[in-house]
Amino acid sequence: MTLILLSERWSDDNVAHDYLLRTITHTCGSIDVQIKSAARKLVEILDRVLLDEQTIIVAAEGQEFATAAKVAATWMGTTITHRGNLLMPSCAELYDDNSFLLIKDGVQISFLRLTSDTLLSAPIIQQTPPPSACLHIFHRTKSSLEVLIEPLAAASDIEWDIIPTGGGWLRLKAISRRFGNLSLFLSSLHKLLPGQIIQAQDLWAYAVETLAKNQKRVGLSESCTGGLIASMFTAIPGSSAVFDGSVVTYANWTKESWIGVLPQTLTEHGAVSKETVQEMLAGTLRTCQSDYAIAVSGIAGPSGGTPQKPVGTVWIGAKAKEREPVIEPFLFVGDRQAIREQAAHHALRLLFECDPALFFAKNT
């Protein structure tokens, strides 16, 4: 942010100058450049700093402020007008008793009238966030994604940050700088990672939106998550259009009686196994009459683990009708709640991966 100070008194008086800087910094952020000048040179200064700044504050008092307002009106190609007791260009976006805001080429230029009052007014600044995007990237390590993104972000003038999630994917936040090209960055990234990106703020909401758009429904059978996945879906407005229900088959007999897991499967492989989850998926599709099924069976702890299946062992699967299931084993770490939450997020990921043509279609 650049401060253009058009007042000798406020420049030379250290107490007043410090007070002005504190007021601006408190309300608008740090000042990078200070320029002390006269109002007649304002256009020359503005033309010089306009290309390098997103925010410019012009501070002046008395006749210098009136002159600055007239000069600004000419510079903006508009007329001068009175609004309240303040002289300003007629194109001013916002104004109050001692300040008005101009916007030129996307740059905010706030004019602040300095007064002898004890309380100095703050300049008007619109807190408009820069263009940004949130992407969820699958099948990539953080280090490999960093290598890929760094040159793309540099070429498009994009700030970025990668955050690992508890669901086995990476969350990328991309923010455009002033002259950044976010659209170019996103299109380049989609071309390099086809079928690996979902662009959305919230993936649970994205799942509901995508299912609803395609008139599809999902049902669940949950063991160690105990309805947690159902709660994640039903927390999203509109989920009733896509969510059939969740069968919480915590005990083995409920797996047998409610969704048709074979007793022989439970005896030979145990409840926490690929074979059991595979039969849970098939039974969920039959019971719920859904287009998609998710099934989870595991040991959330703190007890119940064995040397062969320690606490944190979880089998998770997802299946679309007429497709092969996607089933994966996990060994999660953390307390009981952490294990259950990780299982829920991985279940969402496997839902996407059991039908990539549907869930990644709008992001390719």
Q: What pattern of helices and strands is seen along the backbone? A: EHHEHEHEEEEEEHEEHEHEHEHHHEEEHH
Spatial extent as radius of gyration: 30 Å
Mean pLDDT: 90
What's the end-to-end separation, in Å? 38 Å
Structural class: alpha/beta
Note the main sheet.
Answer: 6 strands, mixed
What is the tally of beta strands?
17
Sheet with the most strands: spatial strand order: 2-1-3-8-7-6
Strand proportion: 25-35%
Uncertain residue ranges: none
What count of helical segments does DSSP give?
13
Apparent shape: elongated
Q: Give the helix level as a range of percent.
A: 25-40%
Give an overview in words.
The chain has 364 residues and is an alpha/beta fold. Helix content is 38%, strand content 26%. It is built from 13 helices and 17 strands. It has helices at 8-12, 14-28, 42-49, 62-76, 142-156, 182-192, 203-213, 228-234, 252-259, 263-269, 274-288, 336-354, 356-359, and strands at residues 2-6, 33-36, 55-61, 80-83, 86-89, 94-95, 99-104, 107-114, 132-137, 158-164, 170-176, 197-199, 218-222, 243-248, 292-298, 313-320, 326-331. The relative contact order is 0.08.
